[in-house]
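Weekly structure sync - notes
Attendees: PM, LS, DV (DV joined late)
Agenda: review two folding runs queued last week.

Item 1: First target. Sequence and structure tokens pasted below for the record.
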Amino acid sequence: MPQTIPLVLSDDHVARVAPAEGLIHDPAWRLLEEVDLDALADRLTQGRPRPIPIFAYGSLIWNPGFEVQDRRRATAIGWHRDFSLSLDHFRGTPERPGLMLALASGGSCEGLVLDIAPGTERDSLRAILKRELVAHELAANACWIEVETARGREQALTFYADPVDTPMARLTLPQQAQRLASAAGAAGSGAEYLLRTARGLAELGIHDAYIWTLQRLVAEEIDAASPAGCPPPD
């Protein structure tokens, strides 16, 4: 397995980001109920392969939240990681907005295909869709994409590939770093999310130059705002 470049961002950096209180969800959203989740799952998986393959490129790598039968390295063809989903809830607030990963057109993206364990489809898909799509307003953000694995070309279900109907932030890499270094909300900080994603990739031997550059810039932003040994700013 190839060695990745060591990470600069650390648990110490994350600890220096001041926590923030906020909302988990946008209060204007209409949250998906079980009947909605089941109907959406049926629509997305009808006629699709079994076991159902999920392409993970961010938090699903280090926290899938469903029963996985098998996992394998995969490259999403024609997509790349992009911190472009703007958050004023979850890992952000209106005062300290955050960013979450999506897939953007172009390039390639190494990640994992996670096969849902047979016999758990209903509960697993409910868990995945409730977590990833959350609300009726976001329900269009699931699609099947082409991936390359050791088995050859496959189709896998993924989320937020060229997102629709959701707030977007088109920021430069330094601007993304500035936002992630300060963002925090009810679910934690942007720096924590970035670090856990980078570590998940490193454990797989995946080196994404974009993520590695971003984690270094976020560490530098945190160092500048709160030097090591100093408590998080109020």
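Item 2: Second target, run right after the first with the same settings.
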Amino acid sequence: MGIIRHTETEGVEVVTVDYPPVNALPSDGWFALADAVRDAGRDPATRVVVLRAEGRGFNAGVDIKEMNADSGHTALIRANHGCFEAFAAVYDCQVPVVTAVNGFCLGGGIGLVGNSDVIVASDDATFGLPEVDRGALGAATHLARLVPQHLMRTMFYTAGKLTAQQLHHYGSVYKVVPRAELDAAAMEVAENIANKDGRVIRAAKRALNGIDVQDVHRSYRYEQGFTMELNLAGVADEIRARFDDDLAAQKKEN
């Protein structure tokens, strides 16, 4: 359990997220993920990194239980910093990052996927930002890299979801495959990249980041300021408490 890195084939490093039951990462998990991606990219033998997950879904965002257990704002600040570091590690990785998305991709998962270079998804994958329903903001920066502007706004305000097939229509998801074929599909893309000259691939990654129209780091940090404001005002605590009550009620009904 945790963040696992291994060499799959020559030039291909795989970073796996495994935090049962839903891959909602604690603060330490986000920092560990950042370190694993950065270390993989720094290795001169690496030409591409594959980011994947075990379990029911790719990522369920931050660990809300960690936040609720903290009477102050330490957990929130660490989660904010951890997410920022993990998203930045994917974007700034010295080589391309191919992300394989299975099941649900929510909250912080959108930050990872939106900053990736190539996205492959299983046919049961869904993508969304439930932040508004949790009294928080963030990762609209990264959702805007996946869908057109007005759809991004609609998804953000409504906390709605899109399927992998819909994102494939917009061109942000490269390929949609049955879940059993997901790892193979991601590896096919990764091996294609790994067969190129590593010096050229690293230069290409720098060049593409350099011509990006959006500063993803500054944009996301701006969003995080509003999350902190909502928490300081007590709004986020109120909403999270209602969310916990709703979950408890659902469990009793079932």
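Discussion on item 2: Residues 14 and 50 are 5 Å apart (CA to CA).
Action: LS to circulate a short write-up before next sync.
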